[in-house]
Amino acid sequence: MNARAGRGEKMTEVPKIVYDRLGAAERDLQGRDALDPAHPNADLLTAFAEQALSPTERDGVFGHLALCGGCRELVALALPAEEVAAETAPGRPALIPAKAARSWRAVFAVPSLRWAALAAGIAIGCALLLVRPGTLNQAKLPAANPQIATAALPASAQQIASSPSDQSGPADGEIPKSERPSSKKIKAGRIASHTPQAPIGVAAETAASAGNNTAVRRSLPAEDTLMAKNDAPPIERAKPALQGSESAQPNVNLDVTWEVAGGVLQRSLDGGQTWQTAVRADHPLLCMASRKEDIWTGGRAGTLFHSADGGVTWVQVHPSISAQPLTLDVVHIELRDALEIAVSTSDLEVWSSPDGGKTWDKK
Amino acid sequence: MPKPSQSGHEANIAAALYERSGASAYGLSAGQFAAILDEILRKQVSSPSPGQRADFCAALRLEELALARACAAGNDLAWQDFISRYRQKMHSMALHITRDAAHAAELADSLFADLYGVSTRDDARRSKLVFYTGRGSLEGWLRTVMAQEFINRYRKQKRTVSLEEQTEEGVQFAAAVPDPADTPGRESTERLEAATDEALAELSAEDRFTLASYYLDERTLAEIARTLGLHESSVSRRLDRLAAGLRKRILAGLRTRGLSHAQAAEALETDVRDLQLNLRSRFVQDSGPRSFPKGSG
After folding, report:
1. Would you call B227 and A75 a contact, using CB atoms and an 8 Å cutoff?
2. Domain covering B184-271: architecture
3. Which of B215, B209, B240 is nearest to A7 (CA)?
4. pLDDT digits (tens, 9 = 90+) for B28-37
5. Is the pLDDT of residue B138 over 50?
6. SS3 (DSSP) at A125
């Protein structure tokens, strides 16, 4: 029996005695279960899957899961439907079917073909640079709000993020939007369909806290929707989390539903049928709030992101008071009016900003 | 700190939690909400200090907890909100879990009925939502409860048809599993088992979970990565490291049990497990969570 069969992954094999003893440990647990059935409840497993448990609790759940195939199956079955949605969403055929993706991986498992593909990729990259010199570094972060825009955006995001002015017209040397190859996005989708997602921050395992998980649905005018613009938010381009489902479909439902789940901000463009990752930060996100085009999302270790254009562009906001940055978990966000925002922290502090995140006060 | 100010501080915290939860919109009073938090706290933390209490409560999904408990209490506005936020999602979740539209509709409707509380105890409607404690998201909890329900149904169906399947597959004519005591080389097998158990016991629970998920359950790297909150390549590296480390530890364990290096290597490579692997796979297929602890969702 080969555990790798059908998975297309080349992993180091373990001695078969290991399979046997892992299975034996499970049978031992089953024997004990007959006398004293004790499995983690749905609440605990949910918090585990969302990395919301303390390290001690998490370790305890791991200890049980290591021995209980039934609970492992439950956790796996209850994972959010990210990749699956991308592959099976009605009307949005997967760019590469799962089987084809696996066969491609199998092809690239051959070392010579892998090197050939790498060489070809480098050659194509060089050719593109020669043909369109200077296009790679054209995009800039929004200049309209320099206080909050950016110092801490990941370097990749800073390179790729486009300013609002970029969206209305191309900058010098930049490929006009109409000429932007849609294959760029498709290529990203192909990669994402079988490429691992960006990691959730390691802080996920450091403290037990979670925040409000608010889903917000609203309708955007057609010209404001991501689909209509055929342009993914820069943060997504910087961190391609789920580009497989991002292939632009002009006739989708314009309802946008936002929510934080599993440590990432997700959006649905079809009333909750399928979900796409909109923001994946270094630390897990815990809450979000929105008012019209303003969308805020916050999470562990003072993580706070803001989009002023309905999720098209995102900037990381660093609340600080007298040079003391906010490092506590952001567990709740309240948008009080057009500019005033208040964020609650894990130890019940409330940080508020009267000017959209430029200056902060605490109570 | 003097007691009056301490209780005043606790009252402030309770008021802040109540305000954050938005429970008042669903007709839950501050006292009712505090009682809900107390009940959850009692079950989850033994003898919490005021600080632990505040930290624990602040980390709960208060808004979703208020919504769930208000629904359980039969508040109409809460049910409107719940339906608008989760009814359609529940169908999507069910479709994802069952991969079949008909079963998905049945599963989602069945769970919705449980959430509404059609089953009664002592002539009182009892909603399943009272089991939600806000430690994870309400959506995640719904997904887990639904997955549990699906597994229970699947297991039930599997048990029902298993005799027919066995007849078709000829399993009833399978050769009897030999008594391990009669198996040749039993002593060396026991040494190998002991060395392997020892090596596995030295691993962290997370590492054992990773091994079991990949090698026993045949989960993909992507699935494991999502469960662990890691990058897929990190899981891949971890598995490689674990496999190599296990081999070394088992070999070392065999040598401490009196085998030479060559004998240990030979014992490790011998595929005497194949027969037992078939047996193991049958055991593992039939394993499943039979029930959650009393009072669980």
Report:
1. yes
2. Orthogonal Bundle (1.10)
3. B215
4. 999 999 999 9
5. yes
6. helix
Asked if A49 lies within 8 A of B293 by C-beta distance, the reply is no
The two three-digit tokens of residue A92, written as one number: 């949005």
Q: What's the pLDDT tens digit per position in B242-270?
A: 888 888 888 888 888 888 888 777 777 76
Give the 3-state secondary structure of chain B.
CCHHHHHHHHHHHHHHHHHHHCHHHHCCCHHHHHHHHHHHHHHHCCCCCHHHHHHHHHCCCHHHHHHHHHHHCCCHHHHHHHHHHHHHHHHHHHHHHHCCHHHHHHHHHHHHHHHHCCCEECCEECCHHHHCCCCCCHHHHHHHHHHHHHHHHHHHHHHHHHHHHHHHHCHHHCCCCCCHHHCCCHHHHHHHHHHHHHHHHCCCHHHHHHHHHHHHCCCCHHHHHHHHCCCHHHHHHHHHHHHHHHHHHHHHHHHHCCCCHHHHHHHHHCCCCHHHHHHHHHHHHHCCCCCCCCCCC
Question: Quick check: B98 contacting A, CB < 8 Å?
Answer: no
Question: Residues 114 to 173 of B: which have CB under 8 A from any A CB?
Answer: 131-133, 135-141, 143-148, 150-151
Q: Which one of A4, A13, A19 makes the best mutation probe of the B interface by having the most chain B beta carbons within 10 Å?
A: A19
Lowest mean pLDDT among A213-217, B42-46, B242-246: A213-217
* A218 interfacial to chain B (CB closer than 8 Å): no
Cβ contact, residue pair B59, A210, below 8 Å: yes
Q: Say what the pTM is.
A: 0.54
Contact at CB, B277 and A20, closer than 8 angstroms: yes
Chain A contact for B277 (CB, 8 A cutoff): yes
In terms of pLDDT, which residue wins out, B276 or B143? B143
Does ipTM exceed 0.85?
Answer: no
**What integer is the mean pLDDT of B127-148?**
93
The least confident of A116-130, B17-31, B83-97 is A116-130
Q: Which of A198-207, A299-308, B112-121, B122-131 has the lowest mean pLDDT?
A: A198-207
Number of Cβ within a 10 Å radius of residue A178: 7
User: What residues have CB less than 8 Å from B173, skipping those under 6 apart?
Assistant: none
Query: Do A332 and B247 lie within an 8 Å CB cutoff?
Result: no
Q: Could you tell me where the DSSP H helices lie in A111-152? A: 111-131
Instruction: Select the more confidently predicted residue: A84 or B33.
Output: B33
Report whether B257 contacts B191 (CB < 8 A): yes
Window B:19-78, CB contacts with A under 8 Å:
20, 54-56, 58-64
**Topology classification of domain B76-152:** Rna Polymerase Sigma Factor; Chain: A (1.10.1740)
**Residue A131 forms contact with B (CB below 8 Å):** no
Q: Do domains B76-152 and B184-271 have the same CATH topology?
A: no
Please judge whether B147 and A77 are an interchain contact, meaning their C-beta atoms are less than 8 angstroms apart.
yes
Token pair listed for B181: 């005591």
When the pLDDT of each residue in chain A is averaged and rounded to a whole number, the result is: 62
Segments making up each domain of chain A, as ranges: 16-79, 138-362
